[in-house]
Amino acid sequence: MKFGAHISIAGGIENAPERAYKAGCECFQMFSRSPQGGKALELTPEIISKFKKNCQKYRLKNYYIHAPYYINLASANSRIYYGSIAAIKDELKRADLLGARAVVTHLGSAKELGEKEAGKKLAEGLIKIFKEDSKKKNFKESEIIFQAKLLLEITAGAGKIMGDNFEEIAYFIKEAEKEISKNKLGVCFDTAHAFESGYDLRTKKSVQKTFDEFDKIIGLERLELLHGNDSKTDLNSHIDRHENLGFGKIGLECFKTIVGDRRLSHLDLIIETPPLRERNDLEVLKKMRRLFV
């Protein structure tokens, strides 16, 4: 298992690899644009070349893009709905240009439509992401081929935010794959979000039980990335607040169990914890890994 952090792209996306290296990362995650909205910075051949050269220089092979926060694939507002689809398509294109492994995205809210209708619309939105804007009748002929995967992130479920349980995530993937090829979609498991949505991760037994449940409902073969965050808020709080490892409500036993689980050893783990202890969090994880070598 390799460890990394979410890295700022301040001053240019080409600076992210060096910043990741200095933070002690073995892999990293970043935004490719402002997460709050606005026009994305053009990825010129020069910028792409500098970024890739810096990744090679600092031996960073695995990196991921996080989609903007405004994504809502369940919105009743057509501008927001189709804008979200277009934004994710663009992020997948940008991921391919930069050589990123995947794009991680939140899914949206059911507050406007209700859970059942919103769930159907969200699944349709996932299909549209991989569909060309054409009038071809045969969908398979109009599929877009991205090298990067799209990863659906487990959420804390605040309000009516969707994707806060394994059953929903499994449903979205199953429905989307009725129309698109398999292996385009994967899952990002965020420890803080899962805990805040009701999955107990405080003991070795509860962590193993949670991943057993994940395997039964979604399938561990779908798990592509881990977000390793402690939580400022309680189990089942549905309030998304990250904390440094060992300083929150989850505790270190969770992360020790994850690092030692052979079923997860091939995955990358990205921390999104407060930056003042960022390097310390990575060192904590590396020390845990040494226990299982």
Can you lay out the helices and strands and say which pair or pack?
Layout: E1 2-6, H1 16-22, E2 27-30, H2 45-57, E3 63-66, H3 78-98, E4 102-105, H4 115-129, E5 149-153, H5 166-176, E6 185-190, H6 191-196, H7 204-217, E7 223-227, E8 230-231, E9 242-243, H8 252-260, E10 268-271, H9 278-290
Parallel strand pairs: 1-2, 1-10, 2-3, 3-4, 4-5, 5-6, 6-7, 7-10
Antiparallel strand pairs: 8-9
Q: Average pLDDT, to the nearest integer?
A: 93
Q: How large is the radius of gyration?
A: 18 Å
Q: Structural class, from helix and strand content?
A: alpha/beta
Tally of separate domains: 1
**Largest pleated sheet:** 8 strands, parallel, barrel
Secondary-structure arrangement, i.e. CATH architecture: Alpha-Beta Barrel
Order of helices and strands: EHEHEHEHEHEHHEEEHEH
Number of helices: 9
How big a fraction of the residues is strand? 5-15%
Low-confidence stretches: none
Helix content: 25-40%
Number of strands: 10
The shape, in one word, is globular
For the largest sheet, list the strands in their spatial order: 1-2-3-4-5-6-7-10
Q: How far is the N terminus from the C terminus? A: 11 Å
CATH topology: TIM Barrel
The CATH superfamily is known as: Divalent-metal-dependent TIM barrel enzymes
The level 1 CATH classification is Alpha Beta
